[in-house]
Design brief:
The complex is a heterodimer.
Chain A (H helix, E strand, L loop, with lengths): L8 E10 L2 E11 L4 E5 L6 H8 L9 E9 L2 E2 L7 H7 E4 L11 H5 L9 H14 L3 H4 L12 H14 L4 E5 L7 H14 L4 E6 L2 H7 L2 E7 L5 E8 H6 L4 H7 L5
Parallel strand pairs in A: 3-8, 3-9, 6-7, 7-8
Antiparallel strand pairs in A: 1-2, 1-4, 4-5, 9-10
Helix pairs in contact in A: 4-6
Chain B lengths: L4 H38 L4 H5 L13 H31 L4 H15 L2 H13 L7 H25 L3 H9 L4 H29 L26 H9 L4 H29 L6
Helix pairs in contact in B: 1-10, 3-6, 3-8, 3-9, 4-6, 5-6, 6-8, 7-8, 8-10, 9-10
Classes of the chains: A alpha/beta, B mainly alpha.
Chain lengths: 259, 280
């Protein structure tokens, strides 16, 4: 692990809108390689919107757009000549609720993002690798052709992680990935996140401070101002944010005075 | 308002009873029709009725085999015409559904679904029969396709739209293109509901009679060529029902029973398709 490695992803003065409503304003932050960065804050603080700007899934909602810079390596993902499809292969995403493709088998789900020119053997190879990476292989190896919807909620979420890993992204975005899961499944996903940092930069949105404290190396705290626009309040190493927050609002949040 | 509890209970009881009675009447009418058709038609249904050609008045027996086959052919061609157009149109509306043009398409499709079938038949007659001075099953198929189109279109659009947004987002987030997301993920997820719409559209036209009068026209013979006038089950029911002969009346009821059975089966299938499968 190289401490001086350049951040794989960096946001500069990002502003995100839904029609005329501004949801996020003036956010500048960077996401370190081989680490989990947690973005936390109360509901409506713009943390999910920020995350969705990183792979440009934000703009598929009607009227939604963003401006500012989101640098992936030395490329601005908001450049007009960038391929959104290519971007989303490099920046994977796991959603709040597991969303396996209902008509596909477990295997079909894991390989859904792969090129169709791959042979069956190659697909199987990638699938096994991704399922092992998502700590799901042992549970599903005998039922790869069963429907994905037959899995439990926690397994479905790990399947969605495997599906994202299969296309070998550089960054993995996770939008409150455990908020609909039981504590045991939550624990397994959190352990998974930690183990995935040896290959990926992970950005996780969470409203659960304990989770942020458990899994992340860096934390960002966001809050909506009085007009409802989400802003970054402060960011730093998680240990520092939780013990010596600079901003009193962060301290209020950490100590449970609001949110 | 300060009514006593007793009067509220009374009002509630009356309301409940009246609505239940109305529901009973509604169901009873359907059961009455079905029962009567089953009894009147059941008498004349036998293997010969299903497998033989019509016979001249006075001769005993005979059947509607040519009408059954004719209806199947006509509806099948109509489905082949309406399905691709309706499906592609629904895809367009579901994916690019905003703006004046898609709204206009939706509005026109709703209007189209309200046009009396006889008018559609007249249109098909003017377009395909009058110019060539020749009745044909194909012209009936075109009329049927026009009747099916709005049903297929709107149910398919609804089916595609009702696929959860999270599924679409999941596919896009994997780096699938809009096209691949739609064709590989969204449409397959919508397929049961699309199939239901298709079956209901088929059920809708299977019993249609009015457009057939001046398109397929009917025939006494085996006719499998869609360019020719062709026997149709609903037409045979119509012809037999208005005839003065007792034996034909019985056959009319039997034909009606067949049509109702077909529509019934299609509706049951439409429901079965929608129930989630556990195997795949």
């Amino acid at each position: 692990m190289n401490a001086t490695a350049p951040p794989p992803m960096r946001v500069e003065d990002l502003n995100a809108f839904y029609g005329s409503r501004e949801a996020v304003a003036g956010v500048t932050m960077s996401f370190a390689a081989n680490a989990v960065t947690a973005v936390m804050g109360p509901s409506g603080c713009g943390k999910t919107t920020l995350l969705r700007c990183l792979n440009r899934i934000h703009e598929i909602a009607p009227g939604a757009y963003a401006h500012g810079k989101v640098m992936l390596g030395d490329q601005d993902v908001y450049d007009s000549d960038i391929s959104v499809v290519e971007l989303r292969r490099r920046v994977g995403m796991v959603f709040q609720r597991a969303n396996p493709f209902p008509t596909l088998s477990i295997l079909g789900n894991v390989t859904a993002g792969l090129s169709r020119s791959l042979s069956a053997a190659e697909r199987m190879n990638v699938a096994e690798h991704a399922l092992r990476g998502a700590a799901l292989w042992d549970e599903v190896r005998d039922k790869l052709h069963k429907p994905a919807t037959a899995l439990s909620g926690g397994q479905q979420q790990r399947l969605c992680i495997a599906r994202a890993l299969a296309v070998e992204p550089e960054v993995l975005l996770m939008d409150e990935p455990t908020s609909s899961l039981d504590p045991i499944s939550t624990l397994s996903i959190e352990e998974l996140m930690t183990s995935l940092t040896d290959r990926y930069a992970i950005v996780v949105v969470t409203h659960n401070m304990q989770q942020a404290a458990r899994v992340s190396k860096y934390s960002a705290f966001m809050l909506a101002d009085e007009t409802g626009i989400g802003r970054l309040i402060e960011m730093g190493e998680t240990s520092r944010i939780f013990t010596k927050p600079v901003d009193s609002r962060t301290e209020d949040y950490i100590t449970g005075r609001f949110g | 308002m300060n009514r006593s509890l007793a009067s509220r209970h009374t009002a509630s009881w009356i309301g409940g009873t009246v609505t239940a009675l109305c529901a009973l009447i509604g169901a009873a009418i359907l059961i009455l029709i079905l029962g009567y058709v089953a009894i009147a038609g059941g008498r004349a249904i036998n293997p010969a009725f299903l497998t033989q050609l019509p016979v001249p008045v006075g001769e005993p027996g005979g059947g509607v085999a040519n009408g059954i086959v004719g209806t199947l052919i006509t509806v099948a061609i109509a489905t082949l015409l309406a399905l691709p157009i309706g499906l592609l149109c629904a895809l367009f509306l579901a994916l690019f559904g905003r703006g004046w043009f898609p709204e206009a398409v939706r509005f026109l499709s709703d209007v189209l679904s309200g046009i009396p079938s006889i008018a559609i038949g007249l249109f098909a007659y003017t377009l395909l029969v009058a110019p060539v001075r020749h009745f044909s099953a194909l012209s009936a198929s075109v009329a049927f396709a026009i009747l099916m189109l709005p049903i297929i279109l709107r149910t398919s659009e609804e089916a595609i739209r009702s696929v959860p947004r999270s599924i679409r987002e999941g596919a896009l987030a994997l780096g699938l293109s809009e096209f691949a997301t739609t064709m590989r993920i969204v449409v397959p997820a919508a397929r049961p509901a699309i199939t239901t719409g298709l079956l209901l559209a088929i059920a809708r036209v299977t019993g249609e009679t009015a457009p057939l009068l001046f398109t397929a026209f009917g025939s006494q013979f085996w006719e499998l060529n869609p360019a020719q006038p062709m026997a149709q089950l609903p037409l045979q029911v119509f012809t037999y029902a208005i005839s003065p002969y007792e034996s034909w009346h019985a056959q009319a009821w039997a034909g009606a029973l067949l049509l109702i059975a077909a529509v019934f089966i299609l509706n049951v299938l439409a429901r079965l398709v929608l129930t989630p499968r556990t195997q795949r």
